[in-house]
């Protein structure tokens, strides 16, 4: 499990280096069984700045919400648990309060297919989950619904979630979604961009199938 602890810490540091998280905002998790083979996941600790974290600060949880560690798990552990429990092919979850995704989330609307790279999230839009209090079960329920057949979503007045088959893939999706959010916001400053059709987006999804597995529909 030590390898996964280091990977989770490295990913958290990279999120800060890229400006996708700052201070104590955001969190990340990775699926891993404990030393006894019990299924669960490691998650970043609650209320701790990344530059103060060490590998031993990563908290292990099982899917009954029991946790083991010297610190408490992130306050958002519920949607990490629910996503990993309901999406067995997903191995990592990243949550950020990045600038452009968070700004767009305040409009409480989906990001439409203004650019073909929207398809990397698994469909022809990036959904925005309804608002709910951070750390609540309702927020987790909303996030799980918004992520149905998707690898990313916005959380209204909050931020974004990206998921993947590894921490590296989840990080790449996080970066790309933040770029798309910036592009869409800049386009909206000019007017309403032309949107790709459902058929055009379906062609993109087919093309992605031969373009590397990180953009495939989950």
Question: How are the SSEs placed, and which strands pair?
Answer:
Blueprint: H1 2-17, E1 27-31, E2 40-43, E3 59-62, E4 67-68, H2 77-86, E5 92-96, H3 99-105, E6 128-129, H4 137-146, E7 152-155, E8 159-164, H5 167-190, H6 198-208
Parallel strand pairs: 6-7
Antiparallel strand pairs: 1-2, 1-5, 2-3, 3-4, 5-8, 7-8
Explain the overall architecture.
The protein has helices at 2-17, 77-86, 99-105, 137-146, 167-190, 198-208; strands at residues 27-31, 40-43, 59-62, 67-68, 92-96, 128-129, 152-155, 159-164. It has six helices and eight strands, in the order αββββαβαβαββαα. The model is unreliable at 214-218 (pLDDT under 50). A hairpin with an 8-residue loop joins β1 (27-31) and β2 (40-43). The chain has an eight-stranded mixed β-sheet, with helices on both faces. α2 (77-86) packs across α4 (137-146) and α3 (99-105) packs across α5 (167-190). The protein has a single domain (2-215), classed as 3-Layer(aba) Sandwich (L-fuculose-1-phosphate Aldolase), CATH 3.40.225. It has 218 residues and is an alpha+beta fold.
Name of the level-1 CATH class: Alpha Beta
If classified by CATH, what would the architecture be? Answer: 3-Layer(aba) Sandwich
Number of helices: 6
Number of strands: 8
- In total, the number of domains comes to 1
* Computed CA radius of gyration, to the nearest angstrom: 17 Å
Low-confidence segments, ≥5 residues, pLDDT <50?
214-218
Shape: globular
- Assembly classification: single chain
User: Overall mean pLDDT score?
Assistant: 95
Strand arrangement, largest sheet?
Answer: 4-3-2-1-5-8-7-6
How much beta, percentage-wise? 5-15%
